């Protein structure tokens, strides 16, 4: 049967027509008053439409709109939201406008494979997407000039459907563009903007969808067009769907197609931010464009691209980084390699971690061709420097040029509206309806004025909402699975509001160890069924469709919740974890559990969401929590030590988990007074919020990207784009490369034989040969630190030495310092290239240590 369809737009009465505008901007997702309007139109339909306002408005009966247009209260509220929306859009005093310190030409293009902006736009899978969505929203709030680029998937986020045995099956509902909060990008003649993307001997076409996100826009490429072959149309079918070949096709459409799409729309970013390696191919399209536009060579154009590109890595697991078979890469990239006039071998080298590597890795490409790289938490930065040390083999690990910018969350999107109202009441001087910048530390100074009673009341309101949600979901699920009426009915009794509630929700990747809690069921029984201090647990999470081990974890937990009388009704598993479930959970639990295998959780963000809403952290010292714990207002499972085996780690950490709950968490929670409040607990909640909320948010994070990366990338990109500059730098690099083998340090003064006293000056001298280079081309450094365990040095300080003269064919260098520390001092001498026109001299690496 062939089914045809067409769309009928609702006809909104004039005085409530703003609903349409509201439905077209994802701004509503972080503005409760706006959401409330949709809820008031039709609560049930709003839920049924998965909070997708466009679909929703199309389904509301016309009669209801007529009614609402005559409802004075509704119209009044709508006008308030309208005013606040326009104020937001037109506010000239954004953080960016008041703080910017570049030349005002900055525009960052942010590329990501997934975006979690709202439930109604299911183009995300997990934490990476959440982070990208929150980055966009904070950019909007700060007025930061950023646009997003991604893909529009025909099939949304995987839905998890559990069978009676607790086995996860998947459903992929279609995203119907006509009912999505997206609009097609048109040219000035009203025609679709379509970009051509050469793809392995074929040309695929992609159209562009725009998603307004407050003050910023997200552009999504879509190959599902009539003009394309079925195989081409399938490229953007599913997020992370298909085989390796489809993955590389997706990534070329995202990276190369994305740059072409921006060009086609006349958008000219000055900075490109690659969020995870997936979009790294964009670097090559940029090089090609610059080569053609400025008539430059590959080496010259590469300087400009490198100086203006930012790369964020998210994956501390090697296999999680994008690796491809070089043959497959060649099939699709040879066309672009030809355009760059470089050899295939030169191209291949850019993606090889080591000369002997068998795969082409996009993380490696991005690290080599971006001057600014970072991991997403301090610990993850350190792990990434170790992980990619092979790209800078002679450099001490601590100096590998991958820094860290710790992740955050978009607070307004994750705080419950009850908490939001409470915080505003006490933290804001007047009853502003306006913007809320959680990274403004002044805001939190008054946090202690919030009365315990009110904080506790709000917390329990949210807890009750979570319990109701869990009961409803469970009933629906059991009914669908064909359980008998009694079983379904019993679901109304799961979880008790006055019982300590611990939540765990995340993707069921095995390194996240969802089953650690179940290591010793007798011990868990004692905790759950402690008569004086009972504990209950809420679990949720999806496994990747191909991850059988993850699915086994789910089955095990669901089985225990359904069949083990000790845990029935006290440990529950909520089906289909998504942004909405996540919100209920992080806003309603007392404690948020996080027990990945350290250091595999790059950052983790769900714990930040929970903390903002007053849940206390119970976490392994990994990711963001490694920067907070051990502390007075949360609990750290285990320590930072390494274990002999996985089994040992699990045993030690499970023990730590059980005893923390038994000996510290439950007693603190149940230290309740006559009013049923534990002062101890509420104080912990306050301390936790005060310490965590001001820092672990994306406003702070986006500001950091701005201060540390975007400003520099914008400036260097422009300096290097000036006439002749890229050619000059490329020629200089060539000179460095050709002469480096002749560069050496000789004849250093011997280290002082007798101990010197603290504060005494010591002079260090060296003779340096530079081949065809001159002292202006290099920096000679006295490198102070501690001898490491691997014959390397751990840097404490590097001091530039001064050139004081030339004798024969060598230069004399010296420096006089008073040592910074007492005890044994280790030092070494080294030479690096030096050039003010480039952002860092370590890529590619030229370094000469004294032999
Ligand atoms: C926050 C969030 C994540 C990421 O949480 P982690 O702590 O990084 O695992 C994943 N999925 C959803 C739906 C979320 O809301």
Question: Can you describe this structure?
Answer:
- It is built from 28 helices and 28 strands.
- By secondary structure, it is of the alpha/beta class.
- The protein has four domains: 77 residues, no CATH class; 299 residues, Rossmann fold (3-Layer(aba) Sandwich); 286 residues, Glycogen Phosphorylase B (Rossmann fold, 3-Layer(aba) Sandwich), CATH 3.40.50.2000; 111 residues, Sandwich (Immunoglobulin-like).
- Strands 1, 2, 5, 6, 7, 8, 9, 10, 13 and 14 form a ten-stranded mixed beta sheet that branches. It has a six-stranded parallel beta sheet with strand order 17-16-15-18-19-20, sandwiched between helices.
- The radius of gyration is 29 Å and the shape is globular.
- It binds pyridoxal-5'-phosphate (PLP).
- The site of pyridoxal-5'-phosphate has 12 residues, from helix 8, helix 23 and helix 24.
Helix-strand category: alpha/beta
Shape: globular
Mean pLDDT: 94
The share of residues in extended strands comes to 15-25%
Q: What would CATH call the class of the largest domain?
A: Alpha Beta
* Bound ligands: pyridoxal-5'-phosphate
**Helix count, DSSP H or I runs of 4 or more residues:** 28
Q: Which homologous superfamily in CATH is the superfamily of the largest domain?
A: Glycogen Phosphorylase B
Q: What share of residues is helical?
A: 25-40%
Q: What is this structure's SSE topology?
A:
Layout: H1 18-23, H2 32-41, H3 43-48, H4 53-59, H5 62-69, H6 72-90, H7 95-99, E1 108-111, H8 127-142, E2 146-151, E3 159-162, E4 168-171, E5 183-184, E6 194-199, E7 202-213, E8 216-222, H9 230-233, H10 244-264, E9 271-275, H11 282-294, H12 298-307, E10 309-312, E11 323-324, H13 326-340, H14 344-350, E12 360-361, H15 362-369, E13 372-375, H16 378-387, E14 403-404, H17 411-414, H18 417-427, H19 452-480, H20 485-490, E15 500-505, H21 521-528, E16 535-540, H22 548-563, E17 571-574, H23 579-588, E18 591-594, H24 606-612, E19 616-620, E20 635-637, H25 646-669, H26 679-692, H27 698-721, H28 725-739, E21 744-746, E22 762-769, E23 778-787, E24 793-800, E25 802-807, E26 810-817, E27 826-833, E28 848-849
Parallel strand pairs: 1-2, 1-9, 2-8, 9-10, 10-13, 13-14, 15-16, 15-18, 16-17, 18-19, 19-20
Antiparallel strand pairs: 3-4, 5-7, 6-7, 7-8, 11-12, 21-22, 22-26, 23-24, 23-27, 25-26, 27-28
